[in-house]
Structure formats: C-alpha cells, structure tokens
Amino acid sequence: MxxxxxxxxxxTGMKAALAGPDGELLHRARRATGRERGPDAVVAEILDFAxxxxxxxxxxxxxxxxxxxxxxxxxxDEARGVAAYAANLGWRDVPLRELISAELGGIPVALGxxxxxxxxAEGRIGAGRGADRFLxxxxxxxxxxxxxxxxxxxxxxxxxxxxxxxxxxxxxxxPCPCGQRGCxxxxxxxAAVSEAWAAAGGGPEADAADCAKAVVAGDPDAVRVWRExxxxxxxxxxxxxxxxxxxxxxxxxxxxxxxxTLFAPLRDAVRQRVTFQKLxxxxxxxxxxxxxxxxxxxxxxxxxxxxxxxxxxxx
Length: 315
Hints:
Layout: E1 4-9, E2 13-19, E3 25-32, H1 39-61, E4 68-72, E5 75-77, E6 82-86, E7 91-94, H2 96-103, E8 109-113, H3 114-125, E9 133-139, E10 143-149, E11 152-153, H4 185-188, H5 190-202, H6 208-216, H7 220-244, E12 248-252, H8 260-273, E13 281-284, H9 291-305
Parallel strand pairs: 1-4, 4-8, 9-12, 12-13
Antiparallel strand pairs: 1-2, 2-3, 5-6, 6-7, 9-10, 10-11
Helix pairs in contact: 1-2, 3-9, 5-6, 5-7, 6-7, 7-8
C-alpha cells in the first residue's frame, strides 16, 4: 500500500507513523531521542528510527515509503532542509533532509518546524478547517505560533515566523534565554506556570496541571498565578491579532489541556483588550500531541503532489 513516513521529533521523544493517502495512520511508533548522549546521538537515533519505519513499510505494507515528512523544534531552514538551531537538542546547521533522504534510499523528504507543522495539520484536518486565516499558538515548555493564510503556513524570510513567545509583554521582567527580558513565554508557558505555582506554594514537584486543579478548587495563590499567566497571554495574543487579523485563534499545547479553566478567562481577557480589532474565535486545538506527526505526513504527501524539487519545498 502506498504510504509516507511521518516523524515528529520533540525535546525528549519522537512520535512517528506510516500514513496512507487519505491521512489514515497505518502504523505508529515512539522512541526516545537519546539527547543525554549529545546532538550527534540524536541525529543517529532519528536516522535509525526512519530506517526502522521504512523497513516496517516494506515488510507489512508491501512497498517502501514514497516520501517522508519530519518535524523538528528550534530554528528550521525549511527551504534548505536544515535544522539550523535547537537549544534543547544541541543542534546547529544539521542537514537533516539530506541525511534522512540518503538513509532511506533517496526518497523525497520535507523538513518542517514542529509548531508550524502542527499548525498545518490543525488547519487542514483540525480546529482550523475552513478558516482562511488563523493563528495556532502552542503553550508548552515555550510558546510558539503558526500563521496560516489560505492553507499555507508562513515560515518567514529566515524561518522565524510565529515566534510569539518572544514578544515582550512585561518590559524589564524576567530574563529569557533569547537575551530579552519580559518575553511572553516567561510568564504564560506551561513551564512558566509550573515554576510560578511551585514557588507560590504548590511544592517543588508541582506543574501547570496541578495549578489548574488548584484554581478549580479555589486556592487563592493558584488563582493569582493563573490570572497573571492569562493576562500576559492575552497581552501577547492581542499584539498578534492586531498585526495578523486572524479569523480564528487556535490554542494548543500542555496548558490548553486545562480546558475552560484556561479558555473562559482568556476569552474575557482578550475581549477586554481589543478596541478597533475584530475579535477572532478562540478555540482549543483538536489534534492534541498528534498534530506534529499528522502535519509531517501532510508535508510528505505535499511533496508527491507538488511538482517541485526538494530544495524548493517549504511549509
């Protein structure tokens, strides 16, 4: 059966699938990245995982994969197929597309940014289906976004488009590893909420999910931490919608798993801040942690349906 390889590389683990022509997932697998052994080991794990998936397709589906799509974190030069930089994986200028294609016998390979690839999936088959313009924002360890216009996710001139987590919302505030102070992700990411709640009384092992539960229970310290995060997020989102005028705001990532504990106050906070701007629909992501893998599969199928050379492929 004709199929493609879809691979989503995260900071600590990889999710993969073999995807059929209609998007159905014919086989799923997971593997650790091995990042504790260094960046070269991560690349080796990716290549070995891709080869394993390729071999599985030959054995169980009767033919090799026709193409592969790979989503990775950090700064991604999609046009050249290079993972330019990823702090949590230690990468700099890794020619992943070339390496993976060589490992898989020369099949075409698309390389995409993890959040933009997840946004592509949400737009085509998830919460953004039918929306001509949307902004997908993932609230995880950091915060990043995907800007979609008419089915295309914008990478930007240098691969930085959608880095909403580094919009300064609290000038002079907490330092960010990017070199600025007061970045959105220092206040409204799942990691930031976990840190703030642990310091406010949640305990050293507390995380954002624990904070959300304490908010529902009415803990005043948790309510304060949550309100500060929501206010910062609303400030960042209003800046984004002022610039982009999206029809829909799709919120995903770990913090979005709090459901209406997040969405009810967030909608109110955004509504209070808009003046002349048109208020977009603010909805939860639909695909969960499968978005990156599904998006990688879409990238791979796009390679087979678009008459371009690999060097011209972008999301």
